[in-house]
């Protein structure tokens, strides 16, 4: 199958997704959770089953922001929100009393951000340093800088679109990013590069056996690795889908971030990294021909 005959379509699709993601990040940024901003941590125990929507509305109408909550099996709610004034807290307590007069407040804490600006800055520096090391390592292993550059660009392609996805989710569905999102982000960086290297390694093996041009070799390599890549990815996708559906609110968006990243990584390896490699090779060939002329 001639995968690379649609190379322009792959670049257009990736370009559109990148433009949407960057525009969303510029306009709406990311909705930061309590791990970044700090706020109030409140735990309630109710005497009966409560309607999640009612609880959310009580906090929202009182003026609370960045509301998220987790429910355990014995009618306990752990609620995270921004810092609450005395008046706001009193109003919430009064409204909850109307819903369940026997409810108990188990814990009320004001917490600072667990992910401060310094840690965010260090994380960014670590990602940049990792990308540089990956570029050099892949270039060294495959004896060609174009391999490393293609792998790193595909990795950033996945990262930017993942960030843009959560920017859109935050704007339209109030989805916040927290420490688990950062963990998912770093995990996806690794997955993206790993999948790309598998395809690149097959290109290297095929190159040793044939003297065809790089587009032909790359197309054959994609064909030989596609089934393995899809089987591996679908195994992860099925597991993450189950976590989203049945894992509860605590890990729902963490699993969603991993799911989006897995899909992006599966797509970018054959349809972003390899087309970039082929394009860089064509540019080099064109320059060599121009010099000879």
UniProtKB/TrEMBL annotation:
How this chain sits in the membrane, per its record, is: Multi-pass membrane protein
Q: Where in the cell is it found?
A: Cell membrane
Q: Which GO terms describe its cellular component?
A: plasma membrane
Q: Does the keyword Protein transport apply?
A: yes
Q: Which UniProt keyword terms apply here?
A: Cell membrane, Membrane, Protein transport, Translocation, Transmembrane, Transmembrane helix, Transport
Gene Ontology terms, MF aspect: protein-transporting ATPase activity
Tell me the ranges covered by the Protein export membrane protein SecD/SecF C-terminal domain, including all copies: 94-280
Describe the subunit structure: Forms a complex with SecD. Part of the essential Sec protein translocation apparatus which comprises SecA, SecYEG and auxiliary proteins SecDF. Other proteins may also be involved.
**Protein purpose:** Part of the Sec protein translocase complex. Interacts with the SecYEG preprotein conducting channel. SecDF uses the proton motive force (PMF) to complete protein translocation after the ATP-dependent function of SecA.
Q: What is this protein called?
A: Protein-export membrane protein SecF
* Origin species: Candidatus Woesebacteria bacterium GW2011_GWA1_38_8
